[in-house]
Structure formats: structure tokens, C-alpha cells
Amino acid sequence: MFTDRFTMPRIALTAAAGIATLGLLTACGGQEHSTAGPGHSAATHGTTSGGAPAATSNAQPSASFNDADVTFAQMMIPHHEQAVEMARLAETRAADAEIKELAAKIQAAQDPEIATMTGWLTTWGKAAAPEDGHGGHDMPGMMTEQDMAKLQQAEGAAFDRMFAELMIAHHRGAIEMAKTEQAQGASPEAVQLAKTIEAAQQAEIEQMEKLLKRL
């Protein structure tokens, strides 16, 4: 009886301690899961649960974006597409070698940018175009259908001059949109692309202005 009276309390204490320990571990595990929570997973922080670097399927763009970024991409994509269409015409219609070279440079730069911005919109869960279409959104520098038809019909020296004049206006419109993005955008990647567009197209405007003096 002496043994039983002292053994039973010890067993009870041991069991209680085990339950308390289990409860503590459960609480700790639950807190970690809650902290990770939606939008705060290990992959978000760049590591897996084992501490190894996590592979992210969309390293860019960042999760930070706003309506200005969305509008910039939705408007700049068709703006770029028109510039690429103009540049392709130069392959067979331009007479001046520098015009052909510049047109190829424009196409090489803007095609990948179109793909980049399309990818952003997909990642952001946004449509490629505004719900009401582009009719309610001003895209400065865009050519009219009549302008495009005239360019398609032009050849040789006439094409060269028309191409330079229209592309200068087109580029100025893109720069205006790029400046708006830099002032209002939240996505670091979109703002950086806007800076790149502004710098590149300003340099091309200056080149085309010099071209027009000798065409």
C-alpha cells in the first residue's frame, strides 16, 4: 500500500506533464501555420520549410501594383503593337538603310516588352484590355486607320519620310504614357520599364529628327 500511494501520484504527474507538453507543441505548430497564412507562405519569403531557397513561378512582377500599373500595361501593349506593325512595313517599303535599321531596332525592343506586359497582366489577374475596351482611354500618339492606310500604300523615299514623322508622334505619345506610369505606378518592374521606354524612345526621336533633315 505504501508503494501504491506514492506511485499513483507520480504516474498522474507524469501524464499531466506529457499532456501539457503536447499542448504546447500543438500551440506552437498552430502559431507558425497562422503566421505563414495566405500570402505569407515559405515560398513568399524565398525559402522552403527546410530552409532551402524556394523556386518561385513568378519572380516578377512583384505583388505590389495598382490601377495605374494595370492601365499602363493595357494601353502600352496595343501602342507597342502598332509600332511593331509600322516597323514591319519598313522591311519591304523603306528605301533608306538607316530607316530600315531603326525599324528593326524598334521591333526587336518592343516585341519582348509586349510579352513582358502581357505576362504582368496575367499574373495580376487582369484582362489584356479594359472591360470597356480602349475607346474610353486616350492612347496618345496612336495612328488613325487612315494614317496606317497611307503608310501601307507608301514606298521608297515617301515611305521613309512618312514613317519618321508618324513614328516621332507615336514615340512622343509613348513617352507621355511612360511618364504617367513613373509618377503614379506602384509596381517597381512597371515603373522601371516606363523609364526604359522613355529613355529609348527619346533617343530614337532625336535620331529620326536628324534623319528628316536629310530625307
From TrEMBL:
It holds the Pfam family DUF305. Keywords: Lipoprotein, Signal. Residues 1-27 form the signal peptide. Residues 31-63 are annotated as: Disordered. Residues 69-212 form the DUF305 domain. InterPro entries: DUF305_CopM-like (IPR005183), Ferritin-like (IPR012347). It comes from the Bacteria. This is Lipoprotein. It comes from Planobispora rosea.
